[in-house]
Amino acid sequence: MVIASQNQGDCGVINVDHPFATLGNLFQLPVKFSNAVDFSGMADDIRSNLRYLKNRSDVDSNRLALMGHSMGGGMVVNVASDLGAGGSDLVKAVVAIAPWNGVQPTPSSVVRSVSAPILIFCSMSDALCPCSGDVQLSDTQGVLTGSVSAEIPLLFGPSADPTWRGGAMSIFDNAQNAVLIDINRVSHFTIAGIDDGGDMQNFADWARSESGLNFDRPSRPDVDIPTMEYAVAFLNQSLDLDAKLGQSFLDESASDSRIVDIRRSR
């Protein structure tokens, strides 16, 4: 099931020959921007959809998992954490792809409440949400071009920093039961792609033309991006759909040239 919010999708970026196509323009549109980062509303949407699935007769409520990318990646960690802190074991697995550790509450500060297994995908070539380190995202069309790092506290509050409080690595470090996979040479969008990531790269190119933000285009060999392959294997194993097949595929990750590093919390 795909959960989306039209209000969150309309974050207020204007494209009139790009005069305001920068991150900085968002503060001029506080209502729309507040919709785009309405973390509480997004969490409520996820919870309500979990309740909907739980009550369907054609859904196995003992095999519910959450998967999200970017802001969605941070939010699925937060929702699973909130449910876990309340004593619920409804969520049996979590997959966070390039999770944004800038949502509120900060995922790395609450992830300890998740007892279910977590699989985190990230990449050091991701300019927006790298595994760790500073945001490398740049603005190519704004009045002041260059790195957007200085604008992060302006947009997200003084507590926000250019590392997103340690990023995906901080979420992993604070988790009870997690695996982190560092994917080789992918961008913030292509890490969530299938095949060679062409469709997601086209989306990234479109986003750059619309917003002026350079999400990077890492040079990579013409090989399939492994994110979804390992996500499916992880869910097969964690949800006991085909545990043997899933574990067998996961065991091959150590020799997969598309992966830079794999870390396990236990």
Provide the descriptors you would attach to this structure in a database record.
Rossmann fold; five-stranded mixed sheet; three-stranded antiparallel sheet; 10 helices; 35% helix; globular
What's the average pLDDT?
Answer: 86
**Please, how many domains?**
1
For the sheet with most strands, the description reads: 5 strands, mixed
Which oligomerization state do the chains in this entry correspond to? single chain
Order of helices and strands: HHHEHEHEEEHHEHEHHE
User: N- to C-terminal separation?
Assistant: 30 Å
Contiguous uncertain segments of 5+ residues? 12-22
Would you report the number of β strands?
8
Measured as a percent range, the helix fraction is 25-40%
Question: Helix tally?
Answer: 10
Task: Just give the CATH class.
Answer: Alpha Beta
Major sheet: arrangement of strands: 1-2-3-6-8
**What coarse outline follows from CA principal-axis ratios?**
globular
Give the strand content.
Answer: 5-15%
CATH topology: Rossmann fold
CATH architecture: 3-Layer(aba) Sandwich
Estimated structural class? alpha/beta
Q: Taking Cα atoms only, what radius of gyration do you get, to the nearest Å?
A: 18 Å
Protein model, in words:
The chain has 266 residues and is α/β, with parallel strands linked by helices. It has a single domain (6-264), classed as 3-Layer(aba) Sandwich (Rossmann fold), CATH 3.40.50. It is built from ten helices and eight strands. The protein has helices spanning 6-9, 30-36, 39-54, 71-85, 107-110, 152-156, 167-174, 198-211, 227-238, 243-251; strands spanning 64-69, 91-97, 118-122, 138-139, 146-147, 178-183, 213-214, 259-264. It has a five-stranded mixed sheet with strand order 1-2-3-6-8, sandwiched between helices. Strands 5-4-7 form a three-stranded antiparallel sheet. β2 (91-97), α5 and β3 (118-122) form a beta-alpha-beta unit. The chain is globular and about 50 Å long. The model is unreliable at 12-22 (pLDDT under 50).
